[in-house]
């Protein structure tokens, strides 16, 4: 189905001035009252109309008995009535000139019953008359810019960013939005489309591809409707912006009865892997890898990162780091003797080593010294990026000795400022590893300090990973994407 | 054989209720799509054998060839390195006997020498349609499953990339005194296999296994086409 004014429709759907909640009940905690609470809590500032056949008022606001009773029109409907009543409500929204409707209600195709399938077909039929449906059986849209949020999303961030997410799963949409908030990542739009009886992956992909607010597209896919159309849209979109895909439910072997080796080895895992590579999409295995990869794309300049430095401390430095990096096509080249000597002169003794990786050994080296080392290391013209592995958790013992809060004694703000300054001076990005092995009940102050440190780094545009291998993996994805984007 | 004739051959096979083409027929279809296959002659009568053998040239490979026969090696229907007329006649008798009641002849085939065996094929994915496969061939195909796929139609870039995607891609380079494989020719084969998938709806699956590198040049030595 091709709509004549898609851009306008999407604008009204993602940034509605007026929303109607259909199926709002003041008793108990239903989807209707749940979404009202979420919209109010996140600070949606547009008009909200409430509809319930019983009428009445809620907190002084009228509850309309029928959709027709709403004065004037509205942009977006949020429908939470029983499945059997959805079609009638949708028709009424269409007459009111709504651009779209989120249908939270379940009881459709997902049941697998003839009745459920028929009800969903009816919804699709009505949608084709000129109103876009998100759902049914979904959590709807989260758009930080407009204040629209998903059903369980009263506490999501209002800070917009470049990442769009299309998700078949509502739970995944909410989890990813929360994870993004925890990591300091901003979203343009998050869409949970559930059964996807109208608007779904391929059209969203095209829309996000054209959307100036979106720089990076992430997707969680279970099934797709039309493989050819999806592939064409993916190839076209990935040529413009990174598309990161987590495909759920992949099988090793082909499920059909086949006679050839080719067909028997063509299970969905291999085919999807190949198809995504052919289109230059980035395939990730879980939500965390998706978030870290999206962060790397969002914060690092678009280029291939071949040679890096690793500075800091911790068990994974040295040979282990080099081995792990190599698996992702990244090198940690040793410094020339002259540079190594200059770095060595700054390092504490004993136990440090100036080569690349640079092991500073002592976790309490002052940020000022680290800044000098990072500045020197960036002077090696082969280097594309630096990784700093922090050892902030060691300050817990310092805090105890000096009788001060760990948050106060740990110099993470200074460190973040210094790193930001080195990046600005050298033009070479620095990623930080914040790995906290201290999270026992008596270490919750360390946990809290790490949460704040992450915020401080993220605010300065510094990518933060939990582990060195996660950073390598994300860089590996970046490298493959940019290498193949500009062959 | 032209592409139109290849299509007719398949239509005819389907009309006969067959689910596969014989090796000989499969190679006619492949050749129509400019895919290099072994030189071969299908011999039905013993008296035609010496002439066919001379045309192909010794040493020969001889195979029982009928549509309903898959897994020829396991059924003892293959003789390799047949060096003269006497050996050829004896092989013919033995293969015919082993074939039993199966309709068909004996395929007299050029023996392609080369130590590097590859596999190519076509499958129809329920979501993405015709997909072309490339990988290590022969006995390694099933053991290592070192393979990659691309959705048809393939561009040359896709074909070259899918060869690079397999772990054992270095086998295509100049190794152990063998020349680097003609990757342009390999790419063309992969592109044309994809084209078969797009042109011929009745083709469900294709296996070319092995595709032997004879020096730098690839040749499909065995072929299976499954119909739907």
Percent of residues in helices of chain A comes to 40-55%
Number of helices of chain A: 18
Helix and strand content put the structural class of chain B at alpha+beta
The first-to-last residue Cα distance of chain A is 35 Å
CATH class category of the largest domain in chain B: Alpha Beta
Q: Give the CA-CA distance, first to last residue of chain B.
A: 22 Å
- Fourth-level CATH superfamily of the domain at 301-485 in chain A: Succinyl-CoA synthetase domains
Helical stretch tally of chain B = 7
* Backbone CA Rg of chain A: 26 Å
Question: What would you call the shape of chain B?
Answer: globular
Order of helices and strands of chain B: HHEHEEHEEEHEHHEEE
CATH class of the domain at 301-485 in chain A: Alpha Beta
Mean pLDDT of chain B: 94
- Please state the CA-atom Rg of chain B, rounded to the nearest Å: 17 Å
Brief account:
The complex is a heterodimer of chains A (487) and B (228). With 487 residues, chain A is of the alpha/beta class.
């Amino acid at each position: 189905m091709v709509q004549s004014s898609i851009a306008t429709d999407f604008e009204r759907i993602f940034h509605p001035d007026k929303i109607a909640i259909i199926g709002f009940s003041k008793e108990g905690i239903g989807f209707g009252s749940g979404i009202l609470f979420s919209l109010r809590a996140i600070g949606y500032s547009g008009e909200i109309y409430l509809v319930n056949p019983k009428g009445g008022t809620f907190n002084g606001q009228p509850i309309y008995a029928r959709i027709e009773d709403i004065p004037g029109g509205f942009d977006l409907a949020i429908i939470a009535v029983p499945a059997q009543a959805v079609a009638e409500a949708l028709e009424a929204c269409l007459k009111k000139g709504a651009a779209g409707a989120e249908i939270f209600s379940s009881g459709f195709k997902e049941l697998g019953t003839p009745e459920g399938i028929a009800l969903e077909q009816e919804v699709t039929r009505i949608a084709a008359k000129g109103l876009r449906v998100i759902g049914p059986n979904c959590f709807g849209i989260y758009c930080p810019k407009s204040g629209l949020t998903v059903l369980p999303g009263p506490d999501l961030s209002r800070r917009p960013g470049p990442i769009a997410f299309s998700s078949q799963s509502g739970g995944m949409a909410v989890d990813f939005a929360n994870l993004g908030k925890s990591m300091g990542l901003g979203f343009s739009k998050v869409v949970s489309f559930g059964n996807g009886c109208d608007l779904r992956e391929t059209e969203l992909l095209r829309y996000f591809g054209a959307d100036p607010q979106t720089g990076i597209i992430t997707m969680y896919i279970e099934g797709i409707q039309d493989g050819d159309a999806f592939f064409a849209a993916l190839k076209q979109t990935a040529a413009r912006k990174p598309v990161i895909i987590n495909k759920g439910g992949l099988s090793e072997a082909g499920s059909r009865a086949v006679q050839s080796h080719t067909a028997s080895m063509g299970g969905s895992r291999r085919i999807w892997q190949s198809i995504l590579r052919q289109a230059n999409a980035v395939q990730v295995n879980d939500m965390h890898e998706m978030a870290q990869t999206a962060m790397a794309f969002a914060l690092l300049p678009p280029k291939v990162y071949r040679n890096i430095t690793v500075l800091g401390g911790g068990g994974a430095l040295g040979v282990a780091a080099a081995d792990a990096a190599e698996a992702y096509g990244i090198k940690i080249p040793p410094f020339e003797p002259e540079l190594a000597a200059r770095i060595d002169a700054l390092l504490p003794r004993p136990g440090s080593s100036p080569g690349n990786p640079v092991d500073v050994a002592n976790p309490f080296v002052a940020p000022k010294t680290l800044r000098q080392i990072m500045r020197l290391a960036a002077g090696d013209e082969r280097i594309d990026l630096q990784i700093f592995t922090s050892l902030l958790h060691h300050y817990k013992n310092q805090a105890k000795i000096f009788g001060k809060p760990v948050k106060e004694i740990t110099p993470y703000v200074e460190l973040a400022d210094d790193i930001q300054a080195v990046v600005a001076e050298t033009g070479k990005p620095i990623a930080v590893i914040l790995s906290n092995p201290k999270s026992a009940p008596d270490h919750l102050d360390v946990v809290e300090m790490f949460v704040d440190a992450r915020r401080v780094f993220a605010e300065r545009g510094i990518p933060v990973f939990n582990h060195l291998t996660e950073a390598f993996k994300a860089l590996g994805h970046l490298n493959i994407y940019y290498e193949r984007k500009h062959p | 054989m032209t592409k139109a004739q290849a299509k007719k051959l398949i239509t005819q096979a389907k009309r006969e209720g067959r689910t596969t083409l014989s090796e000989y027929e499969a190679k006619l279809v492949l050749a129509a799509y400019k895919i290099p296959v072994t030189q071969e002659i299908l011999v039905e009568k013993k008296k035609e054998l010496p002439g066919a053998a001379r045309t192909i040239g010794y040493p020969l490979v001889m195979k029982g060839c009928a549509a309903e026969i898959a897994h020829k090696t396991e059924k003892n229907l293959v003789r390799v390195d047949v060096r003269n007329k006497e050996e050829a006649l004896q092989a013919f008798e033995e293969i015919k006997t082993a074939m039993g009641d199966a309709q068909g002849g004996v395929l007299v085939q050029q023996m392609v020498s080369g130590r590097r065996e590859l596999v190519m094929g076509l499958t129809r994915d329920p979501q993405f349609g015709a997909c072309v496969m490339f990988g290590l061939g022969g006995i390694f195909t099933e053991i290592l499953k070192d393979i990659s796929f691309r959705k048809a139609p393939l561009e040359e870039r896709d074909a070259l990339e899918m060869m690079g995607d397999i772990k054992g891609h270095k086998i295509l380079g100049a190794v152990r005194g063998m020349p680097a494989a003609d990757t342009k020719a390999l790419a063309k084969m992969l592109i044309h296999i994809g084209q078969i998938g797009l042109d011929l709806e009745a083709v469900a699956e294709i296996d070319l296994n092995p595709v032997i590198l004879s020096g730098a040049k690839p040749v499909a030595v065995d072929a299976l086409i499954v119909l739907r």
